[in-house]
Design a protein that fits this description.
Shape: globular
Strand content: 15-25%
Largest sheet: 7 strands, mixed
Order of helices and strands: HHEEEHEHEEEHHEHEHEHEEE
Number of helices: 9
Bound molecules: magnesium ion
CATH superfamily of the largest domain: PurM-like C-terminal domain
CATH topology of the largest domain: Phosphoribosyl-aminoimidazole Synthetase, Chain A, domain 2
Number of strands: 13
Low-confidence stretches: none
CATH class of the largest domain: Alpha Beta
CATH architecture of the largest domain: Alpha-Beta Complex
Oligomer: single chain
Length: about 325
């Protein structure tokens, strides 16, 4: 079945769409009430964020727009030391979209939400003219369990850890669009385990940030400017799989600037560097973590290259890859 404008009418077909696809996938006590707004119980400080997802293609190796829309928002909450609790989901569906694809996306969202421990508490569906596209907005709310984690909190002597191999989401999307056959999969994943374990092990975490659009280079520059410090990294320590490395070499891409959807940077007190690394490596989605460098006095990001030279690492300029998330 294809979605048509009548599915957005607010009438019988809209109810059918909501019941057969969205409530079937997400149903929970709060959502099932179908009130005008969800009423939630939360305690203490909360973190609150929103993100829109426009990736194309909708389904790709390692994930789909549904999984992405949960992981992206959940990870942003986690990066602030918050345990994600509830999400909202807004769907903008172009007429011509396949109901089967929508169902697959909704089921995938439900699975990712379960993995990340969040409930979808409210939602909305709109149908617009177009050619079968699907766009999703999710907002998320979580309880802050560790306050003070901030991009402005890093100090000289801190260690910088990356949670795993770089560039996989970017390479997977690009390969799909170019119709290249390879084994690269998007890394799209909720990072709850890594963050919760760091907090439970009492690691002095100063800053966390998920490494998404703009890549690691952009995140490291944000840390340097946010904390008014310098960042030094070593090219030989950057974790990149052989497959992504090969793909990058052919296309002239730099993993430092490639998007990820299941990777984060943790900046921790230097004295906790080893313990933090072990904690991340033993957490789900963290087994390829590496200490890649440290925070220093000064400004900007500098990298010691594989050949022993030193170069400045700037933020991403220009477009990057459009509609990657
Ligand atoms: Mg983020």
């Amino acid at each position: 079945m294809k979605i048509n404008m009548s599915h957005g009418s607010g009438g019988a077909q809209t109810s059918g769409l909501i019941n057969d696809i969205f409530l079937k996938a997400f149903g929970n006590k709060i959502l099932n009430r179908l009130e005008d707004a969800a009423v939630l119980s939360l305690s203490g400080k909360v973190a609150y964020t929103t993100d829109s997802f426009v990736v194309t293609p909708l389904i790709f190796a390692g994930g789909d727009i549904g999984r992405l829309s949960v992981c992206g928002t959940v990870n942003d909450l986690l990066m602030m030391g918050a345990v994600p609790k509830y999400l909202t989901a807004g769907f903008i569906i172009e007429e011509g979209a396949s109901a089967q694809t929508l169902e697959r996306i909704a089921q995938s969202m439900a699975k990712a939400a379960k993995e990340a421990g969040v409930k979808i508490a409210a939602g909305d569906t709109k149908v617009v003219e177009g050619s079968g596209g699907v766009y999703i907005n999710t907002s998320g709310i979580g309880e802050v369990v560790k306050s003070g984690i901030s991009i402005s909190n890093c100090k000289a002597g801190d260690a910088i850890i990356v949670s795993g191999n770089l560039g996989e989401h970017h390479a997977a999307i690009l390969a799909e669009r170019m119709d290249v056959q390879n084994n690269i999969k998007s890394d799209c994943a909720p990072l709850n385990a890594i963050v919760v374990n760091l907090i439970q092990n009492n690691i002095a975490v100063h800053c966390m940030r998920d490494v998404t659009r703009g890549g690691l280079a952009t995140v490291l520059n944000e840390i340097a400017s946010g904390s008014r410090c310098g960042v030094e990294i070593s090219e030989t320590q950057l974790p990149v799989s052989d497959e992504v490395r090969g793909f990058c070499d052919i296309l002239g891409l730099d993993p430092l600037y490639m998007a990820n959807e299941g990777k984060m940077v943790a900046v921790v007190s230097g004295r906790h560097a080893k313990k933090a690394l072990e904690t991340i490596k033993s957490s789900r989605y963290g087994k390829n973590a590496r200490i890649i460098g440290s925070v220093v006095e000064g400004k900007g990001v500098t990298m010691t290259t594989a050949l022993g030279g030193r170069r400045a690492v700037d933020v991403l300029y220009g477009e990057g890859l459009p509609r990657i998330c």
